[in-house]
Design a protein that fits this description.
By secondary structure, this protein is mainly alpha-helical. The chain has 4 helices and 2 strands. The protein has a two-stranded parallel sheet with strand order 1-2. Helix 2 packs antiparallel against helix 3. The chain is rod-shaped.
Length: about 160
């Protein structure tokens, strides 16, 4: 399991309205190293977001293709009403295949991709902070409002 997968697993149960803050503990990092770490983290999550968006576009194309296929198969079923049962079964199978795949694409795969995209977007806008100790951080109300403003979430 790599760092990106680990952060995704940890961030998944965090409610959508809460910002995600990554606290990296260590006092041996230079400012250049800190900037590099922040850039790498954001690049990784931006890549993941782009990957999920591309997969979502593909599923949308599949959905529309299956919708068109269902419509055509339904029309063919209506037009072949005069045929015997056996030749019409081909169109029935096609109709159910297209409908089943369309349903799966929209409701099952689509739902998972929307969830992944929301999480990837939240992680792409992650706030990275660095601290010297592992003591629990305490944020003032002003700092919390600043974090929300930086993340464009608002309260």
């Amino acid at each position: 399991m790599d760092f990106v997968d680990y952060l995704q697993d940890v961030a998944d149960p965090i409610p959508d309205e809460c910002p995600i803050i990554l606290n990296i503990i260590g006092n041996c990092l230079t400012e250049d190293e800190k900037d590099t770490i922040v850039e790498i983290i954001r690049d990784d999550f931006s890549y993941k977001l782009g990957s999920v968006e591309k997969e979502q576009e593909h599923e949308l194309k599949v959905f529309f293709f299956m919708l068109i296929g269902s419509i055509i198969a339904g029309i063919l079923l209506a037009l072949t009403d005069f045929l015997d049962e056996v030749p019409r079964e081909i169109f029935v199978v096609l109709f159910w295949f297209f409908g089943d795949r369309m349903f799966e694409s929209f409701f099952i795969t689509g739902r998972e991709l929307r969830k992944e995209r929301r999480l990837a977007g939240r992680l792409a806008s992650i706030k990275v902070i660095f601290s010297d100790t592992d003591e629990k951080l305490h944020f003032t109300e002003e700092e919390i409002n600043k974090l929300y403003a930086e993340l464009d979430i608002g309260q």
